[in-house]
Design goal:
alpha/beta; Rossmann fold; Glutamyl-tRNA Synthetase, domain 3; about 15% strand; binds glutamic acid
Length: about 300
Amino acid sequence: MPATPYLGRFAPSPTGPLHLGSLLAAFGSWLLARHAGGQWLVRIEDIDPPREVPGAVDSQLATLAAFGLKSDLPVQYQSRRSHLYQTAIAQLLAQDKAFACHCSRADLSSQGGIHRRCVASQQRPQAAIRLRVADGSHVSFDDALQGLQQQDVDREVGDVVLLRADGYWAYQLAVVVDDAEQGITHVVRGADLIESTARQILLQQALGLPTPGYLHLPLLLDSDGQKLSKSQAAVPVDSAQPVPVLRWLWAALGQSPTALETSTSVAETLQQAAAAFVPARLQKTSVRAPLQPPG
Ligand code: GLU
């Protein structure tokens, strides 16, 4: 039997323009896919309209295009995939692996913010749906870069929200359903999401879905040592000068700086990068971003 072909992905939420940190995840996941001779796709995670910024989808796709990071398959939008999330929830409810919950944030704060049983003081207009996390739900997985990771999901996270009380699908549900439905074999993303992985694995198991390989890339820190994030309005990347930015990202991924010295275009830079990429050189720990963005 031939091995399953590698399929990686980059899955931004349209909460603002891409910054260096998001581009690092995009480039890193692209490099690992190319190194494995596999494909790479882009999925827009637009399931949280209150957090969405108008124009962010187009701006993110334009930035990826300027850096030559083109989805090998048509770009998918989570906002158009509700039927898949609905089916998954229906399956879990039918098997009593999920339940409707009326607990408010105030109700939960008396329980340390972790849901282990419903303590709702009153019925809410719309219930949330949660995954029933059994006592002793210990998950461990081997991250291809960060090594062995372990989490007691029952004690540290509690019953995971799948459908929010405001009616929106939760990230954890949509990401698990889509990674499986799209046949993603390797999830490569920023280390800020490593804490979510155990609950995603638990949800995969509840739905009878396969678990992909996981690799969490180093985070970029700003000059104060804080994580660069969209919410902190980190400087958007400058698409006008993509080659120096790609070279900077390449170095931040621990790769040999001389490998991309001679390239003159984005296409040539990516071609050289794909050929020279050495996964064993990937940096495990966070990287300080330059004060002045490269470019
Ligand atoms: N949409 C998530 C984000 O932008 C990433 C999801 C993932 O890679 O699993 O933070």
